[in-house]
Amino acid sequence: MGYYSGEELTIAVVSSIAIAIFVFGLYIQFRKYGVGIAGRTSKVGAIGFVRLILSLILKNIKKDPKRFVKLFVFGILFQRMIFRRSKFRWVMHLMIFWGWILPFIFFMIIVFFWMVDWIYGHMYGVEPSIYLTPNFWIEEFETPANIAEYMLLGGISVAVVRRIISKAVREMSDFHDYFLTFSLFFVVIVGLISELMGKGVFGELSNYAPQFTLFYEITALLIFVAFVPFTKYFHMIAVPLVILALGDDRDV
Amino acid sequence: MFERFRCTQLLEFDACTRCNECIEWCPVYQEIKEEKFVPWDTMCEEDKLGFSPKYRVLKMREMLNKKYGLRALIFGPREITKEELERYRDQTYMCTTCGTCRTVCESRLDTVSLWETTREMLVGEGIGPYGKQSRFLEILKSGNMYEAKQEERLCWLPSDIEFKKEAEVAYFVGCTAAFRAQKVAVASVRVLDELGVPFTLLGEEELCCGSVLMRSGQPSPLVENYIMKNIENLKKRGVKKVVFSCAGCMKTATLDWPKYWGKELPFETLTFPQYILQLVDEGYELDIKPVRKKVTYHDPCHTGRHLGIYEPPRRLIQMIPGLEFVEMERTRELQRCCGAGGAVKAGIPQLALAMSKRRVEDAIEVDAEMLISTCPFCRRNLRDGIKEMGIDMEMEDLMVILAEAMGLNTEVPENPYLYKS
After folding, report:
1. pLDDT tens for residues B163-215?
2. What is the ipTM of this complex?
3. Do domains B7-128 and B293-405 have the same CATH topology?
4. Residue B175, pLDDT score
5. In the beta sheet, which residues pair with residue B294?
6. Most C-beta atoms within 10 A of its C-beta, which of A23, A209, B51, B287?
């Protein structure tokens, strides 16, 4: 978070492509679910599926708001179902989850202020207040984002080591598990190196910090955004939707 | 073929995080992994894993993507071969739908519902059901799952027991207690009679609850017809509470009947332990004599995991003086299925037997002299397991234990089904 390539245009283009691929992927997935039954109609399509999910979530909120909040907090934010099964995996998963989700939230806030800054500059030709600039927020988020990134690094390292040292875990893993674990590990390590390069830790090699960081930023955008609907990363979307839409009586 | 699933169910297939918890806990996979039951002639480890909940979810995901995934969108859908579906049928039907996978699922997938809809899909494709299960529909035309005469529904009823034509309480006997586990039915009415509760029985108007067809993926107009008639007949008798001695009927009536009825049922559904405890709480007194035995309790999947009724049977057991109650290692929501459910007892009896033996071993581990349950179907299967193992252990329904502890006569009168009971 403390260092970035500064290649705003390239990042903007890659971000747009990544988001477009993400949306297209979501469409394919939702179209697939739309083959099923919604109420008394079948083959409702992607839009029908989205409508159904929203209506189910709203129904669950109306039916029992307290329970819905409980489902959201304990089921999604704190993933108590994993806690019940394995404390060790829960710690690992939570470190990955929060280590991923916090920088993502920070990133979205920065993108928002980048847009605000751009609109002020290009449409009104004025300088926005310091609080409305991305640089202010980049600095604000530096420490929490660093903590989150180390959490992510810790969590994902445990996941990688588990797969290396445990035969049982290896036997139960397939390509999708390996892709998720190692791609995440790769992005995190590349991010860490680019961060250290930006601080000049690697001597002369640090001169390549902008290029390396650009590589990191593109990789992160592709893996964390574009590939989501097509890989095991999709569980980050599917699981919360299942929990909130089904909203069944089971305890969380 | 996927049109039988609800949209949310199709989403569920993509929500599996491959945590492997279901593989860890699945009682069917355990039997197959340890080769206590071998479904196919030649099986590698991968084939064995195919019977686990996780791989069944992943296989369904794969088939769904073959038809509707990214590649299908670009290059056209790929064929799902008959052989693929037949293998999947075996994997899907060799499941007792016990719901352990649902309990341990970290993504909260409603797996029981997924397996039942998958079975419906396979039946719709002409691939399912499995083996003898394809005769269920024909058998049920008799009104019950044992092809017995409907007019003999009450052949087990002791002559000194009187039931009312109309009453607020009805005892829904169920096919198994009426024709195969008649001692359970006798004990149940004896207890009601002793407590002085006016109750009614549907007799020959009682029709199969529909469980066996629904669990095997064959819901049909016949099921709907039976369910509606059962509800109408109970309503006609002014029933406010229906008490079940069969866990399968109890689950079906509680969870499935309202879907067909279209609204809340006009009566409350209760298991016998729940109802007896209600009476005790209302002030009824049970005159129970001590029974000196070390016992353990097996939670039926249908009333346990599926309905969450864990404490009433335990409370009732503990009300019987002299009984030394011990819990098995796997109880309540993590209980090990006896192997009878999900139409497995009828369709794949060898699997049901292997699973029942495993459950009996759980009881042996805690030195229990007697296994108690509250489902005539579990009772039958666990008895088969005990018999096969040739051990000295009793298996009895809680209502029989209670009735005998109350000094009531649980002898079944002579009838055409007595030797099968």
Report:
1. 999 999 999 999 999 999 999 999 999 999 999 999 999 999 999 999 999 99
2. 0.88
3. no
4. 95
5. B324
6. B51
β-bridge pairing B199-200 and B241-244 = unpaired
Question: Nearest-5° angle of CA B218, CA B223, CA B229?
Answer: 175
Question: What gap in Å lies between CA B375 and CA B244, rounded to an integer?
Answer: 9
A21-34 b/e with 16+ CB inside 10 Å = b? Answer: bbeebbbbbbbbbb
Does the domain formed by B138-282 have CATH 3.90.550?
A: no
- Measure the CA dihedral B182/B187/B193/B195, to 10°: -160
Q: Which CATH class is domain B7-128?
A: mainly alpha
Indicate the domain borders of chain B: 7-128, 138-282, 293-405
Assigned CATH class of B293-405: alpha beta
Q: What is the pLDDT of residue B132?
A: 84
Gap between the Cα atoms of B1 and B67, Å rounded: 10
Low-confidence stretches of chain B (pLDDT beneath 50): none
Cis omega before residue B129 (within 30°)? yes
Q: Of B326, B398, B335, B334, which is closest to residue B364 (Cα–Cα)?
A: B326
Of B2, B11, B108, the CB nearest to A81: B108
CA–CA separation, B199 vs B157, rounded Å? 13
Q: Give A39: exposed, middle or buried? Use CB within 10 Å, 0-12, 13-18, 19+.
A: exposed
Give yes or no for a contact between B80 and B63, defined as CB atoms under 8 angstroms apart.
yes
Q: Which amino acid is at A58?
A: L
B418 interface with A at CB cutoff 8 Å = no
Distance of alpha carbon B301 from alpha carbon B111, whole angstroms: 14
pTM: 0.90
Write phi, then psi, for A251 (nearest 5 degrees): -75, 145
pLDDT band, very low/low/confident/very high, at A1 (cuts 50, 70, 90): very low
Contacts with B2 from chain A: Cβ below 8 Å: 35-36
Give the residue from chain A lying closest to B72, CA to CA: A28
The minimal CB distance from A239 to the residues B4, B10, B15 is found for: B15
> Which candidate, A237, A230, A224, places its Cα nearest to that of A24?
A230
Q: Which residues of A touch B7 (CB under 8 A)?
A: 33-38, 44, 48-49, 52-53
B4 touches chain A (CB under 8 A): yes
d(C-alpha B6, C-alpha B413), whole Å: 48
pLDDT confidence band for A4 (50 / 70 / 90):
low
Q: Does A246 reach chain B within 8 Å, measured CB to CB?
A: yes
Q: What is the pLDDT of residues B242-255, one digit of tens each?
A: 999 999 999 999 99
Question: For an interface test with A, which of B3, B4, B6, B7 has the most A Cβ atoms less than 10 Å from its Cβ?
Answer: B7
Q: Which residues of B fall within a CB distance of 8 Å from A243?
A: 107-108
Give the strand order in the sheet containing B169-172: B199-200, B169-172, B241-244, B268-271
Nearest Cα to Cα of residue B231 among B200, B203, B253, B201? B253
CA distance A26 to B307: 35
Q: Would you call B68 and A48 a contact, using CB atoms and an 8 Å cutoff? A: no
CA distance B134 to B127: 10
